[in-house]
């Protein structure tokens, strides 16, 4: 029996495992950014003690926990030292030491998600091979060693670094053989057929066991071409009921094939012309495309992850709180000097509008395109909500305080 | 200009006062219990830095803040020392040093609510005189010095200590001259005509200025006779639209007469037979009868209080998230030994039911009838929600861990 289960079970012998909370349940989180911060907001309600490790001393979670450890998340020894004695540990970023987590698992710490799944997702090449092996629809691809011939799939082709990319970084579209591309010793990559994308969709799925798996409704992502970062997420996606069912079936297929435990964001493409839906990539954690669940759904993605971590029944994923939601990121303005003190322009006015919910991440400095927060808009009418989101997006900015 | 306003205005000269958040906005809270804790959950979203003072080293807020000060809330010097340098300060308990807050006000700290209003509410005698002076409907009463003649209003009569009572403590119903009553040097009290109560109602009202005041819909309170503590709060109250309007008008009359700034719970009686609605008493803070606003309303009472404190526009109070809500407290079981480690029985099962939202307060020990948390139930049908609340109330218990 893992640490946490035995802790819970030891409280009192009973069929229903009474819940103790407080110092009896110690959850560790690798990463102390906004995702950990929003999880802490929900953990407070369950009196679960969340302890945090992050490389930055003033990470957004640093002051919201009884134990904050500054450390390198990719250092196996540091991760093992942080997690020893915890009941369970989870992540809010995929760039963490898998050997460190494996060592903790051997010590009886419940690790969510499983270290092998984090390793799989850390490598876009392994992800693609996994999709292929399990007949999960995905764009045609070829794996490529550093400095290899990039013409395998013809042009245009998308070159993705196998490791370390995020938010559009580590992705290049090559129009022809002369296009600038990643190279050098770290440039092991996936070459992927360039899909003619009609929509980018995402399904956040939570799986506690084969018998307790829940998919949120698919959302639709709109990217900002400036920073190649998601700028507008809309729920529900404007797709047919059949397409929704396909998205959720695909997400379910992925987690079942992996025997995944935890929360997973499954990003998908809807192909123009063919109408084919295929998996783009996975994120083994709470995700930007699930932030709207806080205001729209009966259970938020953060509450859901906590339930998996604590082995509590998953919550209702229905959009009971609002028929439609849209989410915009608050990014650092392109012109701010890196490391400036942030100033949120337009927030006061946004707060005066019904159905507008800002979430600032508590970052002490702003840089161009840095994610400083997000704002969720909810309402009964999808078009009105999208309109409101665009208005808010145009009027709220994170600039540098003078 | 008060500290916070100048801080905000100094960030950048502009009509709209851009919001800085983070260390630029330092809010102090006197009291580190569940109300402060739930306010911190909302403050995280506004990146407002909340600092806390509480007499107990392991208060529910102790580990959720950058600065926690252990101290006596009734000690003027301690309160002044805690609050010096803050932009604003608020309370989550009315038993605080008013002279300490007045000293802070003189130093330019924005104090919400005003010290004079806290002083008024700390004394039930002054409260009653205030109602009388401003023609605010309330039960007939007489003030009484310690050991005075209690027969002024005949019998039965309710004796309430003027100071220090809470959750039914400091209140006695005297059937006749021989009934046991409060006496001795601290027994200055209010004698109040015993109202034949049809319903106990409550309106939480938030007032940022004369031009920005919002009342939540009246709720209905059901008391548990064992501990004389509210056990079930239902929103909306089952009263007529005219009665609702009377309740809200009464709450508005109270805050306008006081020129109150902050959040105020106005507890009321609906008298049997006459149908008359009268004010019972006031609480100058977030209140048990407003907890359901977290899950039912567009803006929670905690978010609302923060908006007043930060001088941001008040949020929408409509029940946009659910048509009906009911709230039950999780109290320490009558049989637990005082100071036991808590164990929450039935919570796991409750979490498996849609529409059930537990909030544990993170108290490290349980005692009989101690408020350990609350659970809110929401849904479309009021009767079904009340039924679910009763089910949950019967099945969830806070006992002692073995």
UniProtKB/TrEMBL annotation, chains A, B:
One of its GO terms (cellular component) is cytosol. Pfam families: ATP-grasp, PurK_C, RS_preATP-grasp-like. It comes from the Eukaryota. InterPro entries: ATP-grasp, ATP-grasp_carboxylate-amine, ATP_grasp_subdomain_1, PreATP-grasp_dom_sf, PurK, PurK_C, PurT/PurK_preATP-grasp, Rudment_hybrid_motif. GO terms for molecular function: ATP binding; metal ion binding; phosphoribosylaminoimidazole carboxylase activity. GO terms for biological process: 'de novo' IMP biosynthetic process. This is ATP-grasp domain-containing protein.
């Amino acid at each position: 029996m893992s640490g946490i289960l035995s802790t819970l079970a030891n409280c009192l012998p009973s069929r229903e495992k009474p819940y103790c909370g407080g110092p009896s349940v110690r959850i560790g989180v690798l990463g102390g950014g906004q995702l950990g911060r929003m999880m802490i907001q929900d953990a407070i309600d369950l009196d679960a003690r969340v302890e945090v490790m992050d490389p930055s001393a003033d990470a957004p979670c640093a002051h919201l926990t009884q134990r904050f450890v500054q450390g390198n998340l990719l250092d196996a020894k540091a991760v093992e030292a942080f997690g020893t004695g915890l009941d369970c540990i989870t992540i809010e970023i995929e760039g963490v030491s898998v050997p460190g987590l494996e060592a903790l698992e051997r010590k009886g710490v419940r690790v969510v998600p499983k270290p092998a799944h984090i390793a799989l997702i850390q490598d876009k090449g392994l992800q693609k091979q996994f999709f292929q092996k399990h007949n999960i629809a995905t764009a045609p691809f070829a794996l490529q060693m550093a400095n290899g011939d990039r013409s395998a799939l013809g042009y245009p082709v998308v070159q993705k670094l196998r490791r370390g990319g995020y938010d559009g970084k580590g992705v290049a579209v090559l129009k022809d053989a002369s296009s600038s591309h990643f190279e050098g010793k770290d440039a092991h990559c996936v070459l992927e057929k360039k899909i003619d994308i009609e929509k980018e969709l995402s399904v956040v799925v939570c799986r506690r066991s084969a018998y307790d798996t829940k998919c949120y409704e698919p959302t639709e992502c709109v990217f900002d071409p400036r920073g190649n970062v998601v700028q507008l997420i809309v729920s529900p996606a404007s797709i047919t009921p059949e397409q929704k069912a396909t998205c959720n079936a695909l997400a379910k297929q992925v987690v079942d094939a992996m025997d995944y435990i935890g929360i997973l964001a499954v990003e998908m493409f809807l192909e123009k012309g063919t109408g084919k839906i295929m998996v783009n990539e996975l994120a083994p954690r709470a995700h930007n495309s699930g932030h709207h669940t806080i205001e729209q759904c009966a259970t938020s993605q953060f509450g859901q992850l906590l339930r998996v971590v604590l082995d509590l029944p998953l919550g209702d994923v229905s959009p009971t709180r609002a028929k439609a939601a849209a989410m915009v990121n608050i990014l650092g303005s392109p012109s701010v000097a890196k490391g400036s003190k942030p100033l949120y322009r337009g927030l006061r006015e946004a707060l005066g509008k019904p159905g507008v919910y800002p979430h600032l991440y508590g970052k002490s400095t702003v840089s161009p395109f840095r994610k400083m927060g997000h704002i969720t808009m909810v309402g009964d009418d999808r078009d009105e909500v999208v309109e409101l989101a665009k208005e808010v997006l145009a009027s709220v900015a994170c600039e540098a305080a003078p």
